[in-house]
Structures
1.
Amino acid sequence: MIEERLLYKFRAESKLYMKGDVIFEEGGTPNFYYQLKEGKIKLNNFKEDGKEFIQNIFSEGQSFGESLLFIEVQYPMNAICLEDCQIISLPKTSFFDLMNEHPEVSFGLNKALSQRLYYKYIMLQNLSSTDPTTRMISLMNYLKSFHVKKEKYAFVVPFTRQQVANLTGLCVETVIRTSKKMVKKDIIRIKDRKIHY
């Protein structure tokens, strides 16, 4: 998202994290801009019954949690590594200095935040549906919208069945059953244990 050379110019640091490491926790104070150089992270919460709800998954080149730097609040979610990661972090004050000196970066950030807000609207609408097929199609349509290839079955869903369940608020068994029905209806294909949409 933000060029690395620019981040390092404003005193950013790079750190290696291992799979399962926590970058920040719910209730913590947002003090850094984070950008993934390598790996994947998830933003999640846990419900009262202990069930995980994944708010989003980010991968190489994406930033996460930065919207909270603009307001005085605590993190309402956790950021956890799904695999080994290299993450660039920039202190909050340096982040604002960068924004002030490079308004084009601010414009790009606003665009990315708007895309995430759009995703939240789609998923809120999606969660109001009781139909698991509708929930899964909404998620896959959103994910596919970022890819060049739009043909049927050209998009490979980059998540496990468990992650799809956590992103849609369904249980994994429902995702598996629904996937089988969607294959029969010719909506998706399953190849090498991956959903092709």
2.
Amino acid sequence: MQAARSLLFNIAFYLNTFIQIIFYLPVLLLPRRYIWIPVRSWAFATHWLLKKICGIDHEIIGFEKVPPGGIIVASKHQSAWETFTMAAMLPDPTFVLKRELQWIPLFGWYTMKARLMPVNRGAKQAALEQIATVGRERMKEQRQIIIYPEGTRRAIGAPPAYKYGVAHLYGALDVPCVPVALNAGLYWPRRSLRFVPGTIRMEFLDPIEPGLDRIAFLKLLEDRIETATARLVEAGRQEISAREVDHKR
């Protein structure tokens, strides 16, 4: 039964994505601030599909901790869920993303209109300087830079693999960094078409103020995110186990 629901969701997800991309194309001709209308519409529709088809709801914890203005938001990355969820929540976000994503027809046009932060990962040192330079421009606009410190989605239970890029950005911009923990990978695993009913939880943690040594910052960031993520994952596993026991009765 759950396999059928997962298949149905995937069909609905891609169909909805395509329809919304086409429907909102005129927004690309408007000022940039209007780009968040289709983003929030897409996120709302995807959350609705997840809940109605897959039985997946979500809970946001600690969002009131996010300070106003220009900041860095450093998030654990386990699934596609946190990308559209966070983009729909923050007032004027921008993502650090692989430049190849901007080459995707239609979708890439939206990323360019939103003035995201594409990076050539193969360039290494040049990429670090690039995101710092672009990041300073985004801070002048009081935007929220979303970055995944591990660079890509990590499976539940995978050892942490934090990269230096987030520390370089933190040191260059001199703004607060908000760590984010989550357990989305329990319910929407990476590289999987299978979905697990339950409640995804995303938790915004206490901001790390500017001024720390970059290495000390990276260690503190990893400790906060991993500790909170482990707690959320364990709570999620217990809820899934309890649901499975109830289902068997």
